[in-house]
Task: structure prediction
Amino acid sequence: MRERARRIDAATPPDRDRAVDALRALAILGVVLGHWLVTALVADTGTLRTASPLRQLPELTPVSWVFQTLAVFFLVGGHVAVKSHLTAQARGTDYRTWLAARTARLFRPVLAVLALWAVAAVALLVSGAEPQTVHTLGKLVLSPLWFLLVFTALTAATPLVARLHPLWPFALVAHVDLVRFGFGGPQELGWINVAAGWLVPYTLGALWARGGLGRRAGPALLLSGAAATAVLVVVSGYPASMVGVPGAAVSNLNPPTLAAVCFGLAQCGLALMLLGPLRRAMRRPYAWAAIALLNLSAMTVFLWHQTAMMAVTAGGLLAGRPLPGLHTPPDDPSWILHRLAWLPAFALALALCWTAFHTYETGRRRRRTPTADRRPPTARTARSTCDGPRRIPIPPDDPTAARPVPWLA
Result:
């Protein structure tokens, strides 16, 4: 492990901003842990249904403030996309080639998820599983895909929105909410905010990439975003939870509301303030190796974390009785303690999914070394392999477009 961490550290270009990769990794981990903590599969009369502890235990609402980190992901996405597009233009790469390179890694692992769950759904129905159970499981698997569609659309529009000021989409979100909630307009109008709401942190990331954010931008965004969110929740009646709660009249996330956008701006401000400490932390080879590996498998982790949770839940049914924190309703504080105890099992199941499917994200499989090349090294080959770590180029701030290197394949 020490040798692998050293090689990853040595192969990273010195001008790479490792803090950007760290922010992306933290955003992905936030989404995964958030889903595992606020999504329950309850065994009820032979079927599985979803439930949320946020409905029965409103005192857990701050959990949604910590683990709803999508705004940070869109901030980093806009920052990286603009830098990548500028680099592509400087190299003479056309737009279609650039876009294909950026989106291929997003959707390649999706095919594996869809194929496996299509077979699993048919097998469950044939074996006599309740259609409601299959619907519940399928919804959990497919629900994260909306994020990929929005992110891909914003990535494709990068040349158009790269110089768009974040205040413009923010104003659109505010007007949509004013019509919906202030004047009783059609609720369907809120779906405009699916694009406009996430365009706010995306264009903020683009502004960051162009050097348009000063040193005071982080504290200003954090304070103003947090204050605006508090006013909207306390005075205007927006939900305090930053994720959807089953049975609630209004969801801050589906579609995004002005409160969710303001909260996202506060998160983006905090992320910008953490850049310095993260850069110092990423100088440590072990810390950077963990972040680099997670970034190279970000889509695999994102797409399969719900499957990992469902696999553990299904395996627990073999016990013949509902297991606390796994199959029981999340209506008691003890449920949270039991769910925390299940997190290592979810992580282990996710690691197994990663082992099986991460090659679909990188697009390469491990190549077997020919038998003729397994001979002991000669003096010449030994000298060439001891000359020092080979620097493997990684596009600056663009791990999604980087080719996998042998020690990460």
About this structure: The mean pLDDT is 86. Residues 247 and 381 are 67 Å apart (CA to CA). The two ends are 15 Å apart (CA to CA). Residues 19-364 form one domain.
